[in-house]
């Protein structure tokens, strides 16, 4: 008996005993009063009579305690007997026990693995204190585009004083490099306001975090640094005596004062430094995150902050669009609901697999139970109640569930590691730690108990009421289990087949969606091309002329490497998700806030390197690039969308918001009119699954960011040239580093796209789950048919003796399972058709073609036929004399 059942029975017994004892006490009180009066009438004094009555009552109370203890001991002894008997019965049938335990292990293992991901991503994604009150702050313009917020020091102070906000975290990101060593290393630095330690509420692994004294407002911050766990391991080999050591970044020495724990991965930084906050409007920073006060909703905070930010926009109009709306989003919703929907989809799939596993074990228990009718009938004849039999069978089911839960937990560890490798990159917070932990283990124990009750309930109810007379007069091999048991078998088999077909069709639809993405026409050539990130250091190349010349010199040095075919500058233009969303105006047409295009800043080599065809006009040359000529190329989609005949050559457009901003230097006149000098073919610029959006290409010198890409096309494996590229870049500027340690290719960027990775994840997991479900369904069907054949051995012997052929016996066995299989296939097809659109909307994949549904139906039919064929073949070989002699 399960612990829950035992506890429930205990409480029921206790309540029953209390009720009986209360009734006895009332009767006893009346009886003792009568006895006292009678003793008084017999001559005893009232005092002596009361003393005698109290003595009798005390003796009764002792008796009641003895009875109560004896009842509990009897109850516990019965439970222990059930467990011992259940263990003996499971050990008596090792083949059945192994098959059932493996079925449970597969269902529970997959469920625990998926729940581990759900728990880590949705329930406990952040290690920060009160992370539910942490929110992101952005502004949304009239066209619905969200942008970062840049504030001055005085505006930052006003924001901290609002009633809805408890604290504000300011942030600025820079790429630095370690200096003073022979081998410089690229370092991602995040400058934080000194309230960071109290804001996050995370205790450092070593030392301390940033303190208010590290960066008093209006003064230069102290030269201290807090290391991330990964950088500490990589750069200092995880040595515990790192505190007090000096780290030189961009030729400036910083004292190491702390190391953060492994799960602290805010913006994936390597080091955390104190941020300088001043009242200078020309030195804005980004208030990256707010912490709302308790019981303050994002909507309430938005209503309070909207007028304040409208005031800020009047003070610093260059930092705000003309029309905007404050947006506040909880940190836990930062990654959108796409991945959450995917997790819920996977939880639904694993729930189906668990149901199939439970149905499979129920089938095994029912089939095995037909051979135990004699045993159960004898126990009932000897006085066992139906409740007692059902409790015994449920105890065996729970033991079976627990025996499958142990290997299921072990299986879950490996499955979690596999799922983590398949999860889409950047689809969940980097702080997430996906693992089988204590809450997951407690969940697994509860799941095991639940599944034990789930698959054991039906067999226990069915088998606890055998027809005693019929069973006692029959042989064990002639007992078929009764009409009710056969109907239960048929329903469970049909349910298994239907759910398995649903999973197979879902896997087929996901595979079709993945194949469709693989066949997507990119519009550009991604082969043999490496993407080299160039992050500028703070306060370097601060003039337009100097930055433009520097980028061009880097490109030329890289292009001169032997084995390099071509090199091109790509600022915000590296596919397949490229182009910054900008408002666009067309000359002689009314301005429209809704007219937005993807702005790409490139060098002229960009189009030949990626093999993007020129459909008309020309590409600007090197001289025009270096003087920041206001020339533009547009893609075919934009030409067709904004010009009736697609002929946009010599038309004039402008992007009025393209101008100098913090961390970006614009060429003179960058917000004026550009002449369209060419039209190029469409290239994927909004992911793989979405349509191409209108795009404008202009010389990269129009707007020089602090970060750009150099696309490098090579004759051999691109990443093998990374060392040469680093050397050439350092030859121009010894402090300049290349982003990343291993490099990335255009093909790698395509594989890292969220729609690609989600489609791949769904395909892999649904395929795995559906194959497991197919295996369980085949095992369940085989078990039912095998037990049916065993029970009908005498019948088959008689049929053979009367002249039945082997083919007739095979058809008889197949006919016994045809209805169940047919009903299951029809129900599965209807479910697959009903849920096809829902599945496609959740996975952004295919709805599944009729041919795919037909294919999985044929596969399931063939597997079911194979499961029936082996027992049928055994039935056709029954020796009539052996069968009749057995009776």
Care to give the gist of this entry?
Residues 1-8, 10-21, 59-73 and 468-481 have low confidence and may be disordered. Helix content is 53%, strand content 15%.
Helix content estimate: 40-55%
How large a portion of the residues is in β-strands, by DSSP E?
15-25%
Work out the radius of gyration: 38 Å
* Whole-number total of structural domains: 4
How many helices? 24
How many distinct beta strands? Answer: 25
The main sheet comes to:
12 strands, mixed
Morphology: globular
Average the pLDDT over all residues and give the rounded result. 81
Give the distance, in angstroms, between the N- and C-terminal Cα atoms.
Answer: 36 Å
The secondary structure category is alpha+beta
Low-confidence parts, pLDDT < 50 over ≥5 residues?
1-8, 10-21, 59-73, 468-481
Structure description:
The chain is an alpha+beta fold and 887 residues long. 53% of the residues lie in helices and 15% in strands. It is built from 24 helices and 25 strands. Helix 2 packs across helix 10 and helix 3 packs antiparallel against helix 8 (338-369). It is globular. Residues 1-8, 10-21, 59-73 and 468-481 have low confidence and may be disordered.
Main attributes?
alpha+beta, twelve-stranded mixed β-sheet, globular, 887 residues, disordered N terminus, eleven-stranded mixed β-sheet, 4 domains, single chain
Compile the SSE list and pairings.
Layout: H1 3-41, H2 46-92, H3 94-123, E1 134-141, E2 146-147, H4 153-160, E3 165-177, E4 186-192, H5 196-200, E5 206-207, E6 224-227, H6 229-236, E7 246-249, E8 252-259, E9 271-274, E10 286-292, H7 298-315, E11 324-330, H8 338-369, H9 373-381, H10 386-422, H11 438-463, H12 468-472, H13 482-518, E12 529-535, H14 544-559, E13 564-571, E14 580-583, E15 585-586, E16 596-602, H15 605-610, E17 614-617, H16 622-626, E18 631-635, H17 636-642, E19 652-654, E20 664-666, E21 674-680, E22 695-699, E23 703-705, E24 707-714, H18 722-732, E25 744-745, H19 746-751, H20 754-791, H21 793-801, H22 806-843, H23 850-876, H24 880-886
Parallel strand pairs: 4-9, 6-8, 16-22, 18-21
Antiparallel strand pairs: 1-2, 1-10, 1-11, 3-4, 3-10, 5-8, 6-9, 7-8, 12-24, 12-25, 13-16, 13-24, 14-16, 15-19, 17-21, 18-22, 19-21, 20-23
Helix pairs in contact: 1-2, 2-10, 3-8, 3-10, 3-11, 3-20, 8-11, 8-13, 8-20, 10-11, 13-20, 13-22, 13-23, 14-18, 20-22, 20-23, 21-24, 22-23
């Amino acid at each position: 008996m399960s612990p829950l059942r035992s506890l429930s029975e205990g409480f029921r017994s206790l309540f029953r005993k209390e009720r009986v004892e209360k009734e006895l006490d009332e009767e006893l009180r009346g009886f003792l009063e009568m006895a006292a009066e009678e003793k008084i009438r017999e001559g005893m004094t009232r005092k002596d009579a009361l003393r005698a009555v109290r003595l009798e009552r005390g003796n009764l109370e002792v008796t009641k305690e003895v009875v109560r203890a004896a009842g509990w001991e009897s109850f516990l002894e019965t439970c222990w007997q059930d467990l011992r008997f259940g263990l003996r019965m499971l050990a008596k049938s090792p083949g059945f026990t192994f098959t059932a335990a493996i079925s449970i292990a597969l269902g529970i293992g997959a469920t625990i693995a998926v729940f581990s991901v759900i728990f880590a991503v949705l329930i406990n994604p952040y290690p920060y204190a009160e992370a539910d009150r942490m929110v992101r702050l952005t502004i949304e313009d009239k066209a619905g585009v969200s942008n970062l917020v840049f504030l001055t020091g005085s505006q930052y102070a006003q924001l901290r004083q609002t009633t809805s906000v408890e604290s504000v975290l300011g942030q600025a990101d820079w790429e630095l490099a370690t200096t003073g060593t022979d081998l410089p290393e690229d370092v991602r630095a995040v400058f934080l306001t000194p309230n960071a330690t109290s804001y996050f509420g995370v205790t450092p692994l070593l030392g301390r975090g940033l303190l208010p004294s590290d960066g008093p407002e209006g003064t230069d911050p102290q030269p201290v640094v807090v290391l991330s766990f990964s950088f500490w391991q990589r750069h200092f080999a995880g040595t515990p005596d790192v505190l007090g050591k000096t780290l030189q970044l961009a030729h400036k020495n910083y004292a190491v004062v702390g190391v953060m724990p492994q799960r602290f991965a805010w913006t994936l930084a390597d080091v955390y430094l104190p941020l300088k906050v001043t009242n200078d409007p020309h030195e804005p920073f980004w208030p990256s995150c707010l912490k709302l006060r308790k019981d303050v909703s994002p909507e309430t905070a938005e209503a309070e902050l909207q007028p304040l930010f409208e005031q800020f926009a009047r003070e610093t109009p260059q930092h705000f669009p003309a029309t905007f709306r404050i947006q506040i989003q909880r940190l836990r919703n930062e990654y959108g609901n796409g991945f959450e929907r995917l997790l819920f989809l996977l939880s639904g799939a694993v729930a189906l697999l668990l149901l199939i596993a439970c149905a499979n074990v129920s089938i095994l228990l029912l089939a095995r139970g037909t051979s135990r009718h004699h045993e159960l009938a004898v126990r009932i004849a000897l006085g066992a109640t139906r409740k007692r039999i059902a409790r015994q069978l449920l105890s065996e089911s729970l033991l079976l569930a627990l025996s499958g839960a142990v290997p299921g937990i072990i299986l879950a560890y490996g499955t979690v590691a596999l799922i983590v490798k398949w999860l889409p990159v950047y689809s969940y917070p980097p702080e997430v730690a996906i693992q089988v932990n204590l809450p997951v283990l407690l969940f697994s124990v509860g799941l095991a108990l639940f599944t034990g009750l789930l698959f054991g309930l039906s067999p226990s109810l069915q088998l606890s009421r055998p027809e005693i007379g019929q069973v006692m007069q029959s042989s064990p091999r002639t007992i078929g289990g009764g009409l009710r048991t056969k109907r239960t078998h048929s329903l469970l088999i049909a349910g298994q087949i239907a759910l398995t077909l649903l999973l197979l069709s879902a896997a087929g639809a996901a595979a079709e969606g993945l194949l469709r993405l693989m066949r997507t026409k990119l519009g550009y050539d991604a082969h043999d091309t490496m993407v080299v990130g160039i992050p500028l250091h703070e306060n370097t190349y601060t003039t337009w002329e100097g930055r433009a010349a520097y980028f061009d010199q880097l490109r030329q040095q890289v292009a001169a490497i032997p084995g390099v075919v071509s090199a091109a500058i790509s600022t915000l233009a590296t596919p397949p998700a490229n182009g910054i969303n900008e408002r666009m105006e067309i000359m002689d047409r009314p301005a429209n806030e809704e007219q937005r295009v993807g702005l790409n800043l490139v060098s002229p080599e960009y189009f030949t390197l990626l093999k993007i065809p020129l459909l008309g006009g020309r590409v600007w040359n090197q001289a025009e690039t270096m003087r920041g000529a206001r020339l533009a190329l547009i893609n075919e989609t934009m030409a067709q969308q904004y010009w009736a005949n697609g002929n946009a050559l010599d038309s004039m457009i402008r992007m009025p918001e393209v101008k100098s901003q913090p961390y970006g230097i614009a060429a003179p006149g960058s917000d004026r009119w550009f002449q369209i000098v060419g039209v190029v073919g469409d290239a994927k610029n909004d992911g793989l699954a979405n349509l191409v959006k209108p795009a404008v290409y202009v010389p990269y010198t129009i707007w020089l960011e602090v970060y750009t890409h150099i696309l490098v096309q090579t004759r051999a494996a691109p990443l093998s040239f990374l060392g040469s590229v680093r050397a050439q870049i350092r030859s121009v500027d010894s402090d300049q580093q290349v982003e990343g340690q291993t490099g990335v290719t255009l093909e790698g960027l395509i594989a890292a796209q969220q729609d690609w990775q989600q489609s791949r994840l769904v395909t892999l997991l649904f395929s795995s789950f559906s194959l497991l479900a197919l295996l369980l369904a085949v095992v369940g069907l085989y078990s039912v048919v095998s037990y049916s054949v065993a029970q009908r051995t005498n019948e088959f012997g008689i049929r053979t003796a009367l002249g039945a052929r082997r083919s007739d016996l095979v058809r008889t066995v197949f006919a016994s399972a045809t209805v169940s299989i047919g009903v299951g296939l029809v129900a599965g097809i209807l479910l697959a058709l009903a849920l096809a659109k829902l599945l496609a909307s959740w996975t952004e994949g295919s709805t599944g073609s009729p041919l795919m549904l037909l294919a999985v139906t044929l596969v399931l039919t063939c597997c079911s036929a194979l499961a029936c064929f082996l027992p049928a073949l055994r039935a056709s070989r029954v020796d009539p004399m052996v069968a009749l002699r057995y009776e």
